[in-house]
């Protein structure tokens, strides 16, 4: 009798153990992506920038580069960025912008749960849709291959790319991502354009510029709506954020700041036409305040003030004018 009870108890215990083990089996996890993470190469510093004399510096060729992405994803995501647009220009202080390179990039599929985040980030900047874009996009292989061909110097030296310091991590990561997926290897030298401007300033003035001066020059909105600056799609849709425009405005900034200092005559390749025809010195403008009052102002035009081709601007005090007009209309109504 006791032996039979023991067998019954042991059988119940074994069945309970099987049920418990079945409940503890984890859900199947999707296999991780086999694509290896891009190797982020160390970024060079400004010590690599040097010239024997002013003539070598003026004739030196620089490549200004920018890559736009659908936002920035969290660190735990394999895809930190989804590149969607690339722009690059070939520039020298002597000749200005000599050629430009631009592609819309076929983006990868956003990680699960981040599609809205990616599209919302794009809508706040470049406004390129993730899907349903009517213009052709290029795959990673085409973009990298044509970029290497575009930036290959005649003497066989490695091209030097420049971008804004805040964008270096994103651009370097995107280049590494595209290279790791396509297998196209190239040794990129990605410098900060702030270092280049500092070197140009130091070479002529024997001192470093202030950070306020440096970022005021780079952050100017003077060329946001200049013709032949943005790509055709961004210009037709009146969108400021454009990878190609970002690159061209770096060249405009250097041309405006250093062309006269190094004795280089400005041309349409250095600045947009409405700027290259102007005197680059300090302009005196008559500002109309309304009610017959005027005031002289010197310096660059503030953002949002419409200027004539050579910097002269007229700002009207519209609030004062409306007040005077309403008072005049009121007096006429009483007289009638």
Could you state the order of secondary-structure elements as H and E?
Answer: HHEEEHHEHEHHHHHEEH
Strand content: 5-15%
End-to-end distance, in Å? Answer: 123 Å
- Order of strands in the sheet with most strands: 3-2-1-4-5
* Overall SS class: alpha/beta
Rg (C-alpha, Å): 30 Å
**Assigned CATH architecture of the largest domain:** 2-Layer Sandwich
Low-confidence runs of at least 5 consecutive residues: 17-40, 278-321
How many strands?
Answer: 7
* Largest pleated sheet: 5 strands, mixed
Mean pLDDT: 77
Q: What is the count of DSSP helices, taking H or I runs of 4+ residues?
A: 11
Name of the level-1 CATH class of the largest domain: Alpha Beta
Task: Write down the overall geometry.
Answer: elongated
CATH homologous superfamily grouping of the largest domain = Ribonuclease H-like superfamily/Ribonuclease H
Find the CATH topology of the largest domain: Nucleotidyltransferase, domain 5
What helical percentage do the residues reach?
Answer: 25-40%
As for the number of domains, it is 2
- Quaternary: single chain
Keywords: Cytoplasm, Differentiation, DNA-binding, Nucleus, RNA-mediated gene silencing
Protein name: Protein maelstrom homolog isoform X2
Region (Disordered): 1-21
Organism: Geospiza fortis (Medium ground-finch)
């Amino acid at each position: 009798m006791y032996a039979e009870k023991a067998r019954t108890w042991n059988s119940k215990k074994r069945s309970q153990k099987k049920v418990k083990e079945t409940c503890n089996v984890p859900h199947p996890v999707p296999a991780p992506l086999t694509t290896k993470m891009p190797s982020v190469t160390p970024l060079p510093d400004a010590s690599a920038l040097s010239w024997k004399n002013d003539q070598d510096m003026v004739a030196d060729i620089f490549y200004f580069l920018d890559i736009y992405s659908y936002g920035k994803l969290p660190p735990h995501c394999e895809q930190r960025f989804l590149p969607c647009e690339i722009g690059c220009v070939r520039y020298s202080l002597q000749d200005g912008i000599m050629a430009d390179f631009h592609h819309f990039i076929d983006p990868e599929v956003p990680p699960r749960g981040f599609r809205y985040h990616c599209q919302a980030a794009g809508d706040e900047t470049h406004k390129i849709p993730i899907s349903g874009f009517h213009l052709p996009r290029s795959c990673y292989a085409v973009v990298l291959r044509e970029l290497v061909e575009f930036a290959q110097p005649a003497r066989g030296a490695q091209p030097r790319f420049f971008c804004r310091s805040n964008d270096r991590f994103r651009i370097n990561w995107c280049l590494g991502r595209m290279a790791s997926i396509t297998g196209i290897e190239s040794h990129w030298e990605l410098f900060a354009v702030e270092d280049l401007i500092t070197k140009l300033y130091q070479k002529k003035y024997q001192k470093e510029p202030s950070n306020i001066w440096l970022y005021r020059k780079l952050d100017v909105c003077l060329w946001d709506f200049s013709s032949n600056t943005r790509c055709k799609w961004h210009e037709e849709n009146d969108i400021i954020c454009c990878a190609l425009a970002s690159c061209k405005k770096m060249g405009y900034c250097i041309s405006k700041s250093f062309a006269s200092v190094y004795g280089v005559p400005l041309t349409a390749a250095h600045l947009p036409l409405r700027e290259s025809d102007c005197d680059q010195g300090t302009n005196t403008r008559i500002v109309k305040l309304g009610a017959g009052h005027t005031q002289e102002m010197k310096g660059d035009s503030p953002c949002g003030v419409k200027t004539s081709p050579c910097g002269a601007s007229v700002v009207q005090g519209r609030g004062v004018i409306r007040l005077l007009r309403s008072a005049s209309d009121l007096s006429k109504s009483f007289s009638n």
